[in-house]
Amino acid sequence: MAAAITFGLARMREEYGERRDFLPSLVADLEKRGALVHLEFGYGTGLGLTEEDYLKHAPGARFVSNQEVFKQQNVLVLRCPSNENLRMMEPGACLISMLHYPTRPQRVEILRNLEIEAVSLDSLKDDSGRRLIENLRSVAWNGLEAGFQVLHRSYPSPGLGSPKRTAIHATVLGVGEVGIHAVQAASRYGNPKLWQTLASRGTPGVQVTAVDYDLTGQEDVMREILVRTDVLVDATQRRDTSKVVISNQWVGWLPEHAVIVDLSVDPYICEHEPFQVKAIEGIPQGNLDQYVFKPDDPAYGQIPDCVSNQNRRYVVSCYSWPGIHPKQCMKLYGAQIRPVLRSITDRGGIQNVNPHGRYFERAIGRAMLSQWISELPGQGSIKPEQEDKG
Question: Which residues of the chain form CATH 3.40.50.720?
Fold first, then answer.
């Protein structure tokens, strides 16, 4: 009888506010498929769950050390682990995580050097190119909810909630999947209940302007838009992340009370040229510990010198917007990833998945690191494809 396929479920340590772990129902499903599941000590505690909660659903699960989790055949964790954790993995093991191959060339190189196979959750797509593991609606709604909370404090007299004010102007950069959700979220203050309350008072709503790349390069047009923008939303998907969409000079055209909502959350990478920069130049990078920044926030002083941040506004930015509401987020991710994990367990491991087989096997094949590397030009060196994560 073949040995059971093993999974290690690791906790995330990126920041204190990161509380997301997969729920007991997913662990139970893995066990039912014949997998032996190892959970890191403390798994689920950020969601108010205990070991008993997991063992009630999956009696065969084991709670083990961080090091033992990373020794399993498959390691499942939503966000990419640290390099230190990656080095604990065995050659040939499989990492299942949000890896963002195109914009993380150094990460790809590390995984390849360690001989680790990987399945990038953000690269799992169906035959038509639609992402299978995504929470883009929460990216937009959580980000806009935070943005309008800040605008409530920064908006001048008579105040955001007053029926005497004029309409709020929101500008959304990008009309892809995130941008579409952002348009609706912005029109409703990121909070349907608040929208209904203000509407019942006769308070003017939000006028949303959506612009794409064929308009953002028109300086005169953009200046006219930005000078009256109360909320500026970055929902861009740039192919070249070395080029800004809104320069810091243009940021200075925004009203003093304006709030910038960073949904794309591209990092600054200024160690080597071409530099990777945010679409809106000179704004801080946030996370679950801090995602609200005032114009005088010390975080502005930590922005790399490769960009200008002379003009500053209120900013909300979070690398993991869905994590603002963690249990709701993991319930969705668990439902989406369940058939993917079933395909891996039913095949007896990633090495047996047929990239040309059934529906989910084909999706897994597209998301495998080995497949992605094989399709790179030259197949020899890892170069950034300069395409944003969805």
Answer: 6-123+325-374, 136-323
CA distances from 149 to 68, 89, 192, 228, 338 (A): 42, 42, 13, 19, 35
- Say which residue the tokens 């005032």 belong to: 294
Q: Give the number of other Cβ atoms within 10 Å of residue 151's Cβ.
A: 23
Nearest to 256 by CA among 152, 149, 155, 153: 155
| Type of residue found at 37 | V
pTM score, whole prediction: 0.86
What is the architecture, at CATH level 2, of domain 136-323? 3-Layer(aba) Sandwich (3.40)
Q: What span, in angstroms and rounded, lies between the C-alpha atoms of 29 and 191?
A: 34
pLDDT digits (tens, 9 = 90+) for 320-336: 999 999 999 999 999 99
Yes or no: is domain 6-123+325-374 CATH 3.40.50.720? yes
Which pLDDT belongs to residue 381?
A: 41
**pLDDT value at residue 390:** 37
